Amino acid sequence: MPKVFEKDVVYDYSPLHTLNYLHRKYPNPFATHVYTVDTLSRTVDPETGLIRSERLIGVQQGAPAWIAKLFHLPETAHVREVVFIDPAEPKAICFSMNLSLKQYISCLEHITYSPFRNGKLHTGADDSTANLEPGVPGPGAALPSTLFTQRAVISSGFSSSMVARRIEKASLDRFGKNAGVGKKGFEWVLAGGQEKR
To answer: If one looks up domain 3-133+141-196 in CATH, what number appears?
Structure first.
């Protein structure tokens, strides 16, 4: 039975700000498992303005020792990511899937970034609201945030159901750990961490 990972996070940054930093998520000091990011293509639809990007992401796969030893796994793996950004919404939809180790495990991930009203209000009393970016409401209006919704389906086609279930469980645990690290890393990027280095 495939394992499902689900997580919703609200980033306290406007969708425009969040989408602007989406392709700058790596490198960051938290996601040390990501060692390369190669952009394979990036296009803009001239009629709709929809941006499509395709990237190849190299990761230290970090499989549990028993799995790595049993299957003589390489230390690195690759993930294909396709991102569609609609600046008019503003919204993004991301799909990713593992290219490496597919004979043992398959991970299909679907992520959305969409506008979210969090109920916090601009007071206009502090300097943080003095230089609002375009699209951010003024004092007294609800602050726009970004809702990050992540869903991943992890399944193993291994012939032994006992081994398949253990591989799925270990992969789900690793995925959850990396998702937590990913959240910290992206928050760092959104806060301008790369510019401060």
So the answer is: 3.30.530.20
